[in-house]
Amino acid sequence: MKSIKVIKIGGKLIENEEVLASLCDDLASLGGAFVLVHGGGVMGSHLAGKLGVEVKMHEGRRITDAATLDIAVMAYAGLANKRVVAALQARGVDACGLSGCDMGVVVSHRRPVGEIDWGYVGDVDSVRADVLGMLLDAGVTPVISPITCSAAGELLNTNADSVASAVASALAAHYDVELVFTLDKAGVLLDVDDETSLIARITPETYAALRAGEKIHSGMIPKIDNAYKTISAGVRSVRITSPRDLAGGTVVTK
């Protein structure tokens, strides 16, 4: 079975030309097939500021009203996506920029209103692995922005981590898939202020022990819980690492 990586990068990386260039150098030298999923929240916030549109957040998550949706589409599916595609093309990587809407690659539904009305925020329903497989088998790297659409054609702003997990899970039926999340740390750390305290591998047993000892807590718990959901869907492993070390960091496995 062919091995591929699904790599998620954040919008901050795309804005930093030096970091983006270094990351694309590394991606070009991977030597294997990969799918890139990117965010763009920072770029969207900057564009909103320039256009005088208020950015509304709740517990660190973006509320997407109609004006914010327009900005998200412009920033994520437009500027951010094409910056990444252009950088990869310059390094000899054939890349095709996609939103979730293109060929229905990622179909979502609008999140129901609960205590919070998130607006035009989507939760993933399905991924067309056949479309992505067609590109991968032709030697083309899909670069996916987190703008998706509903079955009725409604544009939706979708969490990029969720898109990456859904893409990896869908492709796992056809490929040997590793999902890679990049963040601003070396990986999962015992001490968030000490980059040398990296935990190189996490299994269900070590995860349980680390949680019991409160060595892993706060925002890292949902990240690892989601990693295990993805692994249960057929993904071989999930790597949590710095964009400067795509082969390093922390590997979450069965």
Please provide the count of β strands: 14
Strand content: 15-25%
Secondary-structure element sequence?
Answer: EHHEHEEHEEEHEEEHEEHHEE
Determine the structural class based on helices, strands and strand pairing. Answer: alpha/beta
Short description:
With 254 residues, the chain is α/β, with parallel strands linked by helices.
Walk me through what this model shows.
It contains eight helices and 14 strands. It has helices at 11-15, 17-28, 41-51, 66-89, 129-137, 160-171, 204-212, 220-232; strands at residues 3-9, 33-38, 56-58, 61-63, 95-98, 106-110, 121-127, 141-144, 147-149, 155-158, 176-182, 201-202, 237-241, 250-252. The strands form three sheets. Strands 5-8-2-1-11-13-14-12 form an eight-stranded mixed sheet, sandwiched between helices. Helix 3 packs across helix 4 (66-89) and helix 6 packs parallel to helix 8 (220-232). The longest helix is centred in the N-terminal third of the chain and has 24 residues, at 66-89.
Topology:
Elements: E1 3-9, H1 11-15, H2 17-28, E2 33-38, H3 41-51, E3 56-58, E4 61-63, H4 66-89, E5 95-98, E6 106-110, E7 121-127, H5 129-137, E8 141-144, E9 147-149, E10 155-158, H6 160-171, E11 176-182, E12 201-202, H7 204-212, H8 220-232, E13 237-241, E14 250-252
Parallel strand pairs: 1-2, 1-11, 2-8, 5-8, 7-10, 11-13, 12-14
Antiparallel strand pairs: 3-4, 6-7, 9-10, 13-14
